[in-house]
Amino acid sequence: MELTIAGIELHHVKKPLKTPFKTALQTVRERECILIRTMDAEGVEGYGECVAFSTPWYTEETIAGCRFVLEKVLMPLVLNKTLTSPGQVEELFKNVKGNRMAKAGIETAIWDLFAKKQKVPLWKFIGGIDKPIPAGVVVASDEDKIMEQVEAAAAKGYERIKLKVTPASDRDLLKGVIGRFPDILFFADANGGFDDEPFEKLLAFDSIGFALIEQPFSEEQWLLHARAKKEMETPICLDESIRSAEDARRMIELEAGDVIVLKMGRLGGWSETLKVVELCRAHGIRMWVGGMIEFGVSKAHNLALASLPDISLPGDFSDSDHFWHEDVVEPEIRVDTGKIALRSETGIGYNLKI
Ligand code: OSB
Ligand code: MG
Asked: Where in the chain is the domain with CATH 3.30.390.10?
């Protein structure tokens, strides 16, 4: 098959979160993104979402910087090009350093376009299997609201709940929450918050009952993560550190982690993400699909990724109405008894409302 990228449109979106989202690094109150619509010469459309934040607190990129890179650098590299596979986009972008979230916005849109041209759902196009995707939600609030938010999430049927933690978190409170819901899998996410603390502070989180702890130290702290893996029973999961398949290889070589969170924005798109999946499969590393307070386009791509048989842990998959009064896709993403059904429509299976 062959198609020509005839057009690319960028749509800026900014929406308030229903409730502030507190991490060790930042409290997010409103979210911007750039939605990307690409079309081929016959008018078939593919959708992507650039998931950089307004400021560089999670990765170096920003929405303002991404707009520049998209318009001035990346769009000219793909416009009017004829492609035979979406894997070629990576090659067109190879002389552009970094800027993975900007690249992923266009690259994922082109994967959607190819799946639609072939008239198959994206999950099928990438070799996934049709299964209900287990939903997972993140509780990122003040400590006095954790119990009530976990209760609400449990009532909605979420099988997995991720709690944001900092060195100052009340460990007895966390233990109490986890002990109260024995059927729910609890993850901890530190977003690098343990960097400036004595190592023992982290060790004190080992016996709380978390199924894993995500990114205790910041992205470049490979040696500290290797020490954590050696000294702790709780599996160490890397998020921010994994920006490429090379980073995943390094984690495996250095024994710096047990589990990887896949995020297509952070990895630059589908091609690099599928390389990480292959590497983890070969080395028996467990994986799950992470979120970044995303809108429906990105979530739809993430759902397709989670359909791969190698993804063994529940990801960050919440209902559209968890973060948003109104999502950008039609229909909205719905959790039903703890699961999200894959769509049988072609491509990502959701339409853009704009
Ligand atoms: O570290 O996983 C993270 C949100 C923004 C940036 C980074 C992270 C997160 C989350 C939210 O934890 C996950 C979600 O969107 O459900
Ligand atoms: Mg994380």
From this structure: 3-119
| Residue 139, ligand 1, Cβ within 6 A | no
Q: What is the pLDDT of residues 50-75, one digit of tens each?
A: 999 999 999 999 999 999 999 999 99
Q: Which of 352, 243, 237 is nearest to 299 (CA)?
A: 352
Question: Cα(199) to centroid of ligand 2, in Å?
Answer: 20
pTM over 0.85: yes
Residue 204 phi/psi, 5° resolution? -65, -10
Residues with Cβ < 8 Å from 99, sequence gap 6 or more?
61, 65, 66, 69, 73, 74
234-269 pLDDT, tens per residue? 999 999 999 999 999 999 999 999 999 999 999 999
Q: Which atom of ligand 1 is nearest to the CA of 318?
A: 16
Q: Determine if ligand 1 sits within 6 Å of the CB of residue 324.
A: no
pLDDT in tens, 180-238: 999 999 999 999 999 999 999 999 999 999 999 999 999 999 999 999 999 999 999 99
CATH 3.20.20.120 placement within the chain? 124-352
Task: Note the pLDDT of residue 141.
Answer: 87
What count of other Cβ atoms lies within 10 Å of the Cβ of residue 148? 11
Q: Which fold has domain 3-119?
A: Enolase-like; domain 1 (3.30.390)
Query: How many Cα atoms are found within 13 Å in the side-chain-facing hemisphere of 199?
Result: 11
* Residue 164 known to be catalytic: yes
Q: Is the pLDDT of residue 354 over 90?
A: no
Task: Please tell me if the CB atom of residue 219 comes closer than 6 angstroms to any atom of ligand 1.
Answer: no
Residue 189: strand pairing partners: 164, 214
pLDDT above 90: residue 24: no
Q: Pick from 314, 263, 317: which is nearest to 286 by CA?
A: 314
Which residues have beta carbons under 5 A from ligand 2 (an ion)?
A: 189, 214, 239
Instruction: Tell me how far the alpha carbon of residue 116 lies from the centroid of ligand 2, in angstroms.
Output: 31
CATH architecture of 124-352: Alpha-Beta Barrel (3.20)
Residue of minimum CA distance from atom 6 in ligand 1: 292
- Is 58 near ligand 1, meaning CB less than 6 Å away? yes
